[in-house]
Specification:
Layout (H helix, E strand, L loop, with lengths): L36 H4 L15 H8 L3 E8 L9 E9 L9 E6 L11 H12 L2 E6 L27 H22 L8 H14 L5 E6 L1 H12 L4 E7 L15 H20 L1 H4 L5 H17 L2 E3 L2 E3 L4 H7 L6 H20 L6 H11 L4 H13 L7 H14 L4 H4 L26 E5 L7 H10 L4 E5 L14 H13 L7 E3 L2
Parallel strand pairs: 3-4, 3-5, 5-6, 6-9, 9-10, 10-11
Antiparallel strand pairs: 1-2, 2-4, 7-8
Helix pairs in contact: 5-6, 7-9, 9-11
Length: about 500
């Protein structure tokens, strides 16, 4: 995990929405009247991770010495004696027992990215610092191996754009309505309980079941909000907390996608890439000036709006292209820049000749958006996004937002402000989000040039966590820094905090 970019973090920041009220009274107590005693004192049965002969991920975990368990938690924490569900966890035990620091749960965002298979990578990436911890991967409720939600989606809405005009937007309205209907038909009874606040409560059940007085946490992207929820609800149980590439805690859920500043930063990042592509026009052949490169992008975008492009077996229209591009602007690495150039060339060839074959990476991306390949992951992520917020249920209001965003960010404004299944969600959340305001010590890490979880979001989290310190990585665009960027300055500072529990004496700016 200490390479420049790995596949396990993923590209898209998925987050959002409304302001909230105070924590629910029962959170963070082991008292019998909370009804949680049987969960806190359940016996954890560690076992093989492999489920059947075809479970290659489970076999790999077993070979790495990782143990797995299913932790039982309430479906509804306001009715803890009612229906229960299971949350899957995997543990790599601490090897530095002389300096044992307890369990550390890590989360890769999504907000429902499965993480169990990545526990060995986390162990390897954290090195001597991680050796002090039992490293715990948790597939949050309804994701991965934790009794997953699958709405049977034939395609994905994220990252999809409202496109160039009302006709394209109407296609996204129809898709969003269909996806919401499918989730309601198969999972209506559990959708109200798919929230980050409940996932944080599950974390504390895991802590208690493990017999640990404190729980440390490392969370990326949307996982930063999970960590913030935990320390808000369970401040006395919070151990060493690292939040990387964080979202604004006052805007959890889906509506953060429409942040106008994010759209503008993405337009700037695209221009920066166009400058690089123009400097290497002899190799990339997209245009000899940044303006010509951007004109090429605009030309294929408009061509896809007139008629979907034939790219391998896929039909790529104007609702697809902006999201494909954004996924390749996630960092400023040469690999991503070259892959974006190759992707634009594929689109250009399809527009000019009628068809083109995708690169391997593009084929994977298109399969994720235009088929049911990622239905389980996208269903769970959307359930949490819709559960973490309330959003407008008026289509015309959303259309006006799209048009307003388009005026300042023509390519990426309609991407962020697009309609989502949450507009038509069958079972809206039953509880208000919990407002994040506390003085619990935590370390916030952010890249100054981020185009998904932008710097201002990290600064907002830092303000709301008044006991926190912030590390800013200047001159970088990465989404996911600690262990991923390869910044000695960041990694040393984070490792020092995790090793000792002592935050930096002041905020820190790293240059690399």
């Amino acid at each position: 995990m200490n390479t420049r970019r790995t596949s396990i973090l993923g590209a898209a920041l998925v987050a959002s929405a409304v302001f909230a009220i105070t924590p629910i009274a029962y959170a963070g107590t082991d008292a019998p009247d909370a009804g949680l005693t049987r969960f806190h004192h359940q016996r954890v049965e560690w076992k093989s991770c492999q489920h059947g002969t075809d479970d290659t991920e489970g076999r790999a975990l077993d070979e790495a010495g990782v143990q797995c368990a299913d932790i039982r938690v309430p479906l509804d924490y306001t009715r803890p004696r009612g229906r229960t569900i299971t949350v899957a966890v995997a543990r790599s035990k601490a090897t530095d027992t002389a300096r044992y620091a307890g369990p550390l749960i890590f989360n890769l965002g999504g907000p429902a990215n499965p993480v169990l298979s990545t526990v060995p990578l986390a162990r390897q990436g954290m090195g001597a610092t991680g050796a002090k911890f039992d490293i715990i991967g948790m597939d949050i409720r309804f994701s991965g191996r934790s009794s997953p939600i699958d709405c049977g989606w034939p395609a994905s809405w994220l990252p999809r754009s409202a496109g160039t005009d009302r006709e394209s937007f109407n296609r996204m309205v129809a898709l969003s309505k269909d996806l919401a209907r499918r989730c309601g038909r198969t999972n209506a009874d559990v959708l109200p309980f798919a929230t980050t606040a409940n996932a944080a409560r599950d974390m504390d059940v895991i802590r208690a079941a493990l017999g640990a007085p404190k729980l440390s946490f490392l969370g990326y992207s949307q996982g930063s909000y999970l960590g913030a929820q935990y320390i808000q609800q369970f401040p006395q149980q919070a151990g060493r907390i690292v939040l990387d590439s964080v979202i604004d805690p006052d805007r959890p859920g889906v509506t953060i996608l429409s942040d106008r500043t994010v759209a503008l930063r993405r337009e700037v990042a695209l221009r920066q890439w166009a400058q690089l592509a123009a400097q290497h026009d002899d190799q990339l052949h997209l245009g000899s000036t940044p303006e010509r490169v951007l004109a090429t992008v605009q030309r294929v975008y408009q061509a896809a709006a007139r008629k979907p492009l034939h790219v391998g077996p896929y039909l790529v229209d104007d609702t697809v292209i902006p999201g494909v591009i954004v996924n390749l602007l996630i960092d400023d690495s040469e690999d991503n820049a070259l892959e974006l150039a190759a992707t634009v060339r594929v689109f250009e060839q399809a527009a000019d000749t009628g068809s083109a074959e995708p690169t391997e990476a593009l084929a994977t991306t298109l399969a994720g958006q235009l088929t049911g390949r990622n239905s389980v992951e996208r269903s769970a992520a959307t359930a949490v996004q819709c559960g973490d917020t309330t959003t407008t249920r008026d289509v015309e209001t959303t259309w006006r937002d799209v048009e307003a965003a388009r005026a300042t960010a023509p390519l990426f404004g309609p991407l962020g402000s697009n309609i989502t299944p949450c507009t038509f969600w069958p079972n809206p959340p039953q509880q208000h989000p919990i407002r994040i305001r506390n003085g619990v010590p935590a370390l916030v890490v952010q890249a100054a040039g981020e185009v998904n979880a932008i710097l201002e979001m990290g600064q907002a989290m830092h303000r709301d966590l008044s006991g926190s310190r912030m590390i800013t990585l200047a001159g970088a665009r990465d989404h996911g820094i600690y262990l991923f960027r390869g910044s000695n300055c960041v990694d040393l500072a984070v490792n020092a905090y995790l090793a000792t529990g002592n935050l930096p004496t002041a905020d820190l700016t790293c240059t690399e």
